[in-house]
Amino acid sequence: MKLAVRVVAAATLTATGAVSAFALSSTPTTSVRDASILNSLPRGGAVGQKRAPAFAKVPSALFAEAESGSSAAVASRGGFVDAVKSVDIPLMVYFLFWYVGNYYYNITNKLALKAAGGSTGFPMTISSLQLGVGCLYALFLWVAPDARARPTITLDDITKMLPVAFCAMGAHSASVFALSAGAVSFGQIVKSAEPAFAAVLSQFVYKKKVSKAKWLCLPIIIGGVILASVKELDFAVSALVSACIANLFAAFKGNENKKLMDSEGIKDRLGSVGNQFAVTTLLAFLMSVPVFVAKEGARWGQFVEIFKTNPVVSFNLLASGLYFYGYNELATMTLKKTGAVTQSVANTAKRVIVIVGVAIVLGESLDPIKLLGCGIGIGGVFLYSIIDGLLAKK
Prior knowledge:
Structural class: mainly alpha
Shape: globular
Distance between the termini: 54 Å
Order of helices and strands: HHHHHHHHHHHHHHHHH
Helix content: over 70%
Number of helices: 17
Largest sheet: none
């Protein structure tokens, strides 16, 4: 059973990396041949035109209807072709591997943390090395033939990216510590309250006005998190505090990233979304090293011994690092290609899948009160994301 799980995880890891590395073209290609054939067929038939015998027909119902010369069939054929053409297959692949990568990251991350001693083990060392694994992957893509063009950023660009990288490092490190101290499902529920932190920062730090409707959604989100915490069997204050700190860093990161992308010319010099995430990860890793050295550096030799002798730690650390890098890059690509409402639905669905799926796999508590609180909190997040658009339509 363990071997099967590892095989599935390895296959998913390889596929996620491949999709992330080569960033599939957004132009659907699966229906090009059928579309060209259909467009070459006559748009109408003579009144007395005979039907072809059944054995001569192409298996596709579209070709059969086109050959009959029926005007209804022509309309049906055109509608189907248009529908197929409108499907963004690369986007669907991004969604799939974003979800799968996030799911497996949470599982492998938790397994590595537990095997290394939990919150009293090496959470900061593991979080830093996960970023390091992502850095090696990013560097490989820059040197591999035809994988990814290198960015042409300047020293000034790197300086401007430091705040984003620092926030990315803080959000990741705090999140990993939270997941080491408590259940993954509980950490994810608390992390879903990030919009509350983003609203406060936007209003009072970045001077961006938040609507009254959004403020009214915040008690729903916070209330859901509190309700979910009441019946949490693996509740730990350190997990709650760390998840809140992760939310704070994530909210800062969102605002700083927007400022960065508004800087003149930096998008062109970075070259792609993948390069932006790669450079941010490299800087975040360098910033994380002093943190883990200060906190756990004295026990580095002990960790190395665990890494060499415990395959659960070594395998899941490397896998979680690759999953973390891959799913985050795919999430960035996905969100760039979709609208605000789609993003909200996608993030909401992702939270539910991860919370329930990981809890089942790892045997974590799924008390009805906890699930109710989870539903209220995540529902509040979704409402927060779309409320302004709903009111604007009225």
